[in-house]
């Protein structure tokens, strides 16, 4: 048996924005940041937590009135980031530091723009560098900087936006997605205009796209099967609702299509007729793109398949 | 309630797997076959399945559902999932067997850690208001903890390098390890910092992998395994999510889990007749060198305890499987007769925030 080609891989970029409500305590904290003030919370044991806790770790009570701390503080620990990662506070080399703000008993994690690792030490006095545009988020502090650094020109006094008790955190993640060996064979087959599935050696069922493993028996499925591009609609829905990124204009039909010889239906579009004509048992055939993929399925005009032929696959 | 024992364990090779998908199926099918072969069980004998994995690692929602293909869930079976290391899946499975809902359970964990930049993905496990928006990566946070210990005189960079050197030498005997070899601490110290004060050898390698553990009730265990590893203590605890409010050198959750699992912690050491002194082998899930030193102290493990004979997480740390693999390796030490009593440990979260301890014994 020849060595199978390597699985297909492709970049998978994920982006989503988390919108979160800050709640009563962090709302005060973030609102104060927009005003260039830092607040902490005094616990039942008398210790001041900055940033503030939402519930006292000792008594479990919410904090009373928040107290002003800092804005200067002392580095408790630090590590050096020579090549900052996407999203981190500074683009050039910087220190991550735990900073105990003056008047606080706990530390706050943030970046320190120290220029070089040799300028960092435990006990270093630091002050916040305020963002010119402040919205009520942790980013209102761009970073901290050594307290003896020359002061930057004063930035605007007022918050650039009234804090509203919400923050939006954009998340951008970059993956290298790997297709399974079975999926890779399927995708390479599509590019050649062929439909390749796999048969389970135990139950004999044919899966397309191949799953690599029979979900019923938990055994690898190595037996490749080529299937025709004709099949039967086993179920369908008519999509009437638009959504961002939609490529077909509603109304249209998304259907479960059971290819002839397959034991599992896959979802595809059924176009080429009025959506109201699509029905269970309708016979369909693939319409291929020039690039080697299936655009959609279209009715063949054959008599409908009888219910018994697909009843086991609903 | 019944006694419960681990009767089987298997893990995949650790490493960057070009052939493996984020569904874990390609890594799980062979180890299920291996652990069934060793125990004489089939999938039909498993009354409860529980998995540990993460959608953030996979980059898609409900990724664990695809993994169910590997278990062959026809006819329908009882199955659950935790968005945690598989060690916590094992804990759920243990409760199911303890309470008689299943006689035999299989816990598995899997992770394709190499799918994205792991240290950056792990920033998303942090406080979403104050920390995650800054994207502090897992290596940098561990480095803050390491620095505190250096400053406090708890360890030196050489102590840390010696943990790495000892682990890599031990891993020479572990064919599933990702990293192994003979190297001196001085050689390691000559290499550059990754995140000062951490060098590459201080950090677990990024790798993909899977692990599976089968446990059984007292009634079934002896038929399945000549020398079952009986679970005599199993507990997990968590510390505050506020990184700057924690004492990063104390790991109270590890000490508390050890006490709850019946291992005398450092403070209770003198009173502990059945204490840590009688643990012969400990598999500690320490993804950073200094964390092994912290955990030895928090768990009260003396010099007589053989720590990480597998090489530990520093020689192979597939996310969401490595903690379960520690327990599996500890169980294996009992099953093979190497140890009478062994301890498996798993961690989760930044800088040892959450800790789980499982004590395994031969009867």
Largest sheet of chain B, in brief, is:
10 strands, mixed
- Unreliable segments of 5+ consecutive residues of chain B: 265-276
CATH third-tier fold name of the largest domain in chain B: Peroxisomal Thiolase, Chain A, domain 1
The CATH architecture of the largest domain in chain B comes to 3-Layer(aba) Sandwich
Largest sheet of chain A: 5 strands, antiparallel
Secondary structure: helix percent of chain B: 25-40%
Q: Helicity of chain A, in percent?
A: under 10%
* CATH-level-4 superfamily name of the largest domain in chain B: Thiolase/Chalcone synthase
User: Which regions of chain A are unreliable across 5 or more consecutive residues at pLDDT < 50?
Assistant: none
What pattern of helices and strands is seen along the backbone of chain A? Answer: EHEEEEEEEEEHEEEEEEEEH
The side-by-side strand order for the widest beta sheet of chain B comes to 3-2-4-7-1-8-12-11-9-10
Oligomer: heterodimer
What is the number of helices of chain B?
A: 12
Q: In percent, how much strand structure appears in the residues of chain B?
A: 15-25%
Biggest interface between chains: A-B, 63 and 60 residues
Mean pLDDT value of chain B: 94
Distance between the termini of chain A: 36 Å
Which structural class do the helices and strands of chain A define?
A: mainly beta
The number of helical runs of chain A is 3
């Amino acid at each position: 048996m020849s060595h199978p080609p390597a699985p297909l891989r492709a970049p998978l970029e994920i982006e989503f924005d988390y919108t979160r409500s800050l709640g009563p305590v962090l709302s005060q904290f973030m609102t104060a940041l927009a005003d260039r003030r830092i607040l902490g919370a005094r616990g039942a044991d008398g210790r001041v937590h900055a940033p503030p806790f939402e519930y006292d770790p000792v008594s479990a009570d919410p904090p009373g009135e928040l107290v002003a701390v800092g804005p200067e503080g002392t580095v408790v620990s630090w590590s050096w980031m020579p090549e900052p990662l996407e999203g981190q506070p500074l683009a050039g080399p910087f220190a991550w530091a735990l900073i105990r703000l003056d008047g606080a008993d706990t530390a706050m994690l943030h970046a320190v723009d120290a220029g070089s690792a040799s300028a960092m030490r435990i006990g270093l006095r630091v002050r916040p560098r305020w963002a010119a545009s402040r919205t009520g988020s942790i980013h209102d502090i761009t970073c901290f900087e050594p307290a003896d650094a020359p002061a930057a020109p004063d930035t605007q006094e007022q918050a650039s936006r009234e804090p509203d008790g919400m923050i939006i955190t954009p998340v951008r993640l970059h993956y290298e997605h790997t297709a399974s060996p079975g999926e890779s064979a399927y995708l390479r087959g599509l590019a050649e205009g062929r439909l390749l599935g796999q048969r389970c050696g135990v139950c004999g069922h044919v899966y397309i796209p191949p799953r690599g493993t029979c979900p019923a028996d938990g055994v690898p499925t190595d037996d490749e099967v080529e299937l025709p591009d004709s099949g039967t609609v086993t179920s369908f829905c008519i999509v009437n609702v638009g959504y961002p990124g939609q490529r077909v204009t509603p109304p249209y039909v998304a259907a479960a299509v059971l290819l002839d010889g397959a034991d599992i239906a896959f979802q595809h579009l059924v176009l080429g007729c009025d959506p109201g004509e699509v029905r269970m048992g309708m016979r369909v055939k693939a319409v291929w793109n020039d690039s080697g993929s299936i655009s959609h399925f279209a009715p063949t005009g054959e008599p409908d398949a009888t219910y018994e032929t697909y009843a086991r696959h609903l | 309630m019944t006694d419960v024992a681990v009767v089987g364990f298997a893990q995949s090779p650790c490493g960057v797997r070009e052939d493996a998908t984020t569904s874990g199926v390609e890594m799980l099918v062979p180890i299920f076959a291996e652990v069934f072969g060793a125990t004489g069980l089939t999938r039909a004998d498993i009354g409860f399945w529980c998995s540990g994995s993460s959608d953030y690692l996979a980059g898609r929602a409900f990724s664990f559902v695809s993994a169910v293909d590997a278990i062959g869930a026809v006819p329908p079976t009882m199955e659950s999932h935790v968005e945690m290391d598989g060690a916590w899946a094992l804990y759920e499975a243990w409760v199911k067997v303890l309470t008689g809902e299943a006689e035999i359970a299989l816990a598995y964990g899997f992770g394709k850690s190499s799918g994205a930049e792991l240290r950056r993905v792990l920033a998303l496990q942090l406080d979403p208001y104050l920390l995650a928006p800054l994207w502090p990566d897992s290596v940098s946070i561990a480095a803050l903890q390491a620095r505190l210990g250096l400053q406090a005189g708890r360890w030196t960079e050489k102590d840390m390098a010696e943990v790495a050197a000892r682990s890599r030498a031990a891993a020479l005997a572990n064919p599933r390890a990702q990293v192994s070899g003979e190297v001196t601490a001085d050689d390691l110290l000559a290499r550059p910092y990754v995140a000062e004060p951490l060098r590459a050898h201080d950090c677990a390698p990024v790798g993909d992998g899977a692990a599976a553990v089968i446990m059984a009730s007292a009634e079934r265990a002896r038929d399945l395994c000549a020398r079952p590893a009986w679970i005599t203590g199993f507990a997990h605890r968590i510390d505050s999510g506020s990184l700057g409010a924690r004492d990063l050198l104390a790991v109270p959750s590890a000490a508390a889990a050890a006490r709850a699992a019946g291992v005398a912690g450092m403070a209770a050491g003198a009173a502990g007749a059945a204490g840590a002194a009688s643990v012969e082998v400990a598999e500690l899930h320490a993804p950073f060198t200094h964390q092994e030193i912290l955990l030895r102290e928090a768990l009260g493990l003396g010099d007589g305890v053989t720590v990480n004979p597998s090489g530990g997480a520093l020689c192979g740390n597939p996310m969401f499987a490595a903690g379960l693999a520690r327990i599996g390796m500890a169980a294996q030490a009992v099953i093979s007769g190497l140890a009478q009593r062994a301890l498996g440990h798993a961690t989760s979260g930044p800088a040892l925030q959450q800790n789980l301890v499982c004590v395994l014994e031969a009867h």
